[in-house]
Structure formats: C-alpha cells, structure tokens
Please model this.
Amino acid sequence: MLRGFLNAFRTPDLRKKLLITLGIIAIYRMGVAIPTPGINYENVQLCANQTTTNSAFQILDLFSGGALLQLSIFALGIMPYITASIMVQLLRVLIPRFETLYKEGPEGQAKLTQYTRYITVGFAALQSASYITLARNDVFFPGCAVPIIPNDSWYTIAIMILTMTTGTVLVMWLGERITERGVGNGMSLLIFTSIAASFPGAVSTIWNSSDGVRNTVLVAILVLAIIAAVVFVEQSQRRIPVQYAKRVVGRRTLGGSSTYIPMKINMAGIIPVIFASSLLTLPTVIVQFSGNNPADWVIWLQNHVANPGSPLNIALYVTLIIFFAYFYTAITFNPDDVADNMKKYGGFIPGIRPGQPTADFLSYVLSRITAAGSIYLALVALLPTVVFVALGLGTSIPFGGASVLILVGVGLDTVKRIQSQLEQHSYEGFLR
Model:
C-alpha cells in the first residue's frame, strides 16, 4: 500500500491530479470553519455545548461536515446539488425531453448538467432561507437562551441567504473541478471528506462515555465487520453471458466474441438510504414546530414515528429503503433498452431468444438481485443504530451504515481510478 502511494506521487500527471484534489479538499474544509455574516459564532458554540442538538438535522450536519449547525458559509454543503441531480434523474421518467437529452450523448448530458446547476441554485436559496428561519426560532438548539442571530433585519437575512447560496455554488464548482482535473468523483469526495471529518469527535464521544473502553472496542469491531461486508457485497455482481454472432462484411468476418453484462447486487447505491432518512426527518420537523402544547396526534407521532428506536420507525425505515431500492434501480437500468441494443448488434444470451424474451429474463434477474440488495442496504443502515442504542450511545454517532456505505464506496471508486491511471504508466497497479 505504501509503495503504491509513493508510485502515485512519482508519476507526474497523477501527482498533479492528487495535489489538485488535496488542495480543493483543504479549501472546502477551510470554508466549513468560516461563519456566515450575521451569525454570532460564540453564541453558536455556547448553544452547541449547553443544549442537545435537534436529531432531525444531525444527518444533514453529518453530510456537511459539521457546517450546518455552525451556520458557516458552506452550511448547505453539497446536498442541494445531490438533490437536484436525483431530481433530474427522476424527471427523465416524467419528461420525455430529458430522456431524449440523456440519449444524445455528451452534448445532451451537458445540457442536463446545466439544468442541474440551475435547480441547485433554487434549492440552495430555499434551504438557506429555511435554515435561517429555523435558527431564529431556536429549532437547531432547543432551549438555548442566547440568540444565534442577534440582528434579524431583512438586510442581514438577505445577506445570509445570498452568502449560503453562493457557498453552495462554490462547493458545486469545487466538486466539478475535482472531477475534471483531479482524481475521482468530486461530489462524492466532498461528502467523503465531510463524513470522515466528524469521526475524531465521535471517537472522543464514545471514549468519554460510560464503559468507554468496552464501547470503543465493540464499535471498532462492528465498523470493521460492516466495512468487510460492504466491500464484499459492493464488489459482487451477477455476470450474465452475452454471445455475439459472426457477421461477414465483404471479405472480413466480424463478431463471434463473448462478453457479459455485469449486474451489481446493490445497483441503487446509497440513494435509497438517503431518501429514506430524509423522509423520516419530516415527522421530527413537524413535532418541533408543534409548540409547547402539541395535539394528541403529534404526541403519538413523536413517540412512535419520530423516535428512532421505536418499532414503527424501524419498520418504516426498512420499508422505505426497499421501496426506493426498487424504484431507483428501475429508472437507472432499463431491460428493454439493453435487450434492444443487444439485438441491434447481433448479441444474445445463450438459451434466451433476442428481443422481448431477453428483456423479460433481465427483468426477472434484476428483481431478484434487487431484493437481496435492498435487504442488504436495510441491514447495513439499521444494524449500527440498533447497536449504538443498546450501548447507550444514542443515534448521533456518525459510524452509521449510511456513512460506512459512502466511505467504502467512494474509497473503492477512488482507488480503482488511481490504479487504472498507474497502469497506464506501468503494469504494476496501486494495489499489488
């Protein structure tokens, strides 16, 4: 491993890309620590130390690297862009124009990327205004006596909204620069950095808890087991063999090759967990806005739905993950298109007729693979939370299944990209 790192930095082109990536990550982490104009940073720190953070925003704060509850210029992080990207992908099913642009190749996808940027700016403006309103109403830190925003004039609020929106646009630009000139996917690496930055504080929290040594050892074993399981499943795939028939073109014989269609067990990635977590934060937000004298149905919602340890909350979480796993897989992998492309170029699956029978066979395999993948996602996302609650650590520890999925997935993708670039210069890869 160490030799692989040294070889990566000895290669001039790769060294330049690695330094650009590390420099942009450093700029991003600097922006996380810069407070938004109009925020009293000392009061924010006082409230964070004296009160309990609202659990509805802990996962959002995790993805922003702690910037959200600090109300820094990068408080929104990259989440508006992720939301806009997912929205554009979902709109491909509803808007034929988007599907046409997607099939046009690089030019059409560049147009979709431009639409994604516009939607990101709109989401960033709306979310910044919402978060500022929540901060003014003491929703971030319930019960805090000192004001986070001392001056709530319209001019100050407008400057704060503009600053946070601009910060999101800058984060989006930094992520795109990593993708173009650095190593790996820029947006994924920024989320990776945000989650990894919260780990030292989490380790300190576990160590300082009651039975700190025992809890630290148990959490370490659990995290290593989850990492091993995630690596095994994410690398697993069902390879469907494809045979291409021979064709005679003039005096040349083309085709006759054999290949396969790789179908990953978890084709939806981390998207189902993010969607399910986001929807389950809505009941908590409703409870927070219900006031001091909530209605009976709000109390029931708080005890049975908004409580992370309740059986109904766990059942809803698992159900939403399985639903979104099927839904997102269905819009990203179309068996009919794959079957048509195979038929167009003379390909067929041995034992399956081309055309509609091939599409039906791919749908059959895909549905069963997705069943296993969705159950795997639910177990990985749920198991750490259950263990942390049993150990009395609460649900705010960032070693959750979603965090581990993102870290391992981004890490594997980045290592593969570095290895492929190293192999262009020598036969020895990044990992021996």
